[in-house]
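tl;dr need the bound structure. longer version: we got a ligand (flavin-adenine dinucleotide) that a collaborator sent over and nobodys looked at where it sits. i said id run it. heres the input, straight from their email, havent touched it
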Amino acid sequence: MLVSEMDIISPQTVKDCLYILSKNKTAHRLIAGGTDAVVRMKEGKWLPATWINIKGLKELRYIKEINGAIHIGPLTTHTDIIQSSLLQKKANVLVEAACEVGAVQMQNMGTIGGNIGTASPAGDTIPALYVLDAAIELQSLSSKRLIPINQFFTGPGRTVMKQNEMITNIIIQQQAENEIGIFQKLGPRKAQSISIVNVAIILSMAKDRECLGGKIAFGSVAPTIIRAKKCEALLSLHPLTEDIIENIAKVAWKEVMPITDGRATAEYRRDMASALLARGLYRLMRRWESK
Ligand SMILES: Cc1cc2nc3c(=O)[nH]c(=O)nc-3n(C[C@H](O)[C@H](O)[C@H](O)COP(=O)(O)OP(=O)(O)OC[C@H]3O[C@@H](n4cnc5c(N)ncnc54)[C@H](O)[C@@H]3O)c2cc1C
């Protein structure tokens, strides 16, 4: 399909956009930074009758603290996230994930709303959003609802979002003073590559290496992002010694449910999930000790 054959609408306000979404009866899809949309359009996978270009909706680009939580507009780019001193201080796991999205051009163009909207099990910001207990605000012309991130995705490329809705806000919880976070990724190349496996970790620490508990979310090892609950159970009230970390990594090998695809075999993904988790935990311990 040629660009000249497509219907592209560019609303100027969120209200206009929601109106268009409510009235448009043809198949439509939003386009924000376009980094996923253009690739999939060229591949013939996404060919809606109408594209709704939301790039100009400046009111959806923000990072702000409200009542102790952090609100992020869906049009916030990965570069905005990387450069945010609020997120560096209070949600470093998300900053580290944004740093791993493609190369600088993708970080400048690509948005967090687009990363969530694509709903890829390999999307890099999504595991970070899981460990930050994110909630996704969906708005239509007549309603607004807040969906916990673990109920938002229903499969690869699928979410609970309806055709007349759009993401208008992403709310995350801040990391506490004694919480440390890390994002680890294995991709086929150094940059511009989709994750083979990724993991986001937040640990809540007491003194020394004693861990009070934590959250672990893996990407690319199941149809959607998963929380590794069995691994998390082993974090509580232990000093994170080498033995314990190795044991948690073994549990991760069994807990993930990867498939074989063009990027890696299931077995390789299990090995790498286990190794990435161990590496993440060792790195977090080093960071905590040097704090
Ligand atoms: C070369 C290359 C390398 C890449 N590397 C990575 C990588 O390393 N890690 C990674 O995670 N991703 C990667 N990506 C994918 C992509 O860059 C990211 O997913 C990016 O965040 C998408 O944002 P966007 O604004 O460009 O989304 P778009 O392409 O504009 O949209 C993507 C989807 O989200 C929907 N959407 C956008 N905004 C909203 C909204 N407000 N409400 C509802 N739905 C919405 C759109 O309708 C569409 O379905 C890469 C892409 C390319 C081309």
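gonna send this back to them w/ a short note. The pocket of flavin-adenine dinucleotide is lined by residues 29-37, 39, 74, 100-102, 106, 109-111, 113-115, 117-118, 123-124, 166-167, 192-194 (CB under 6 Å).
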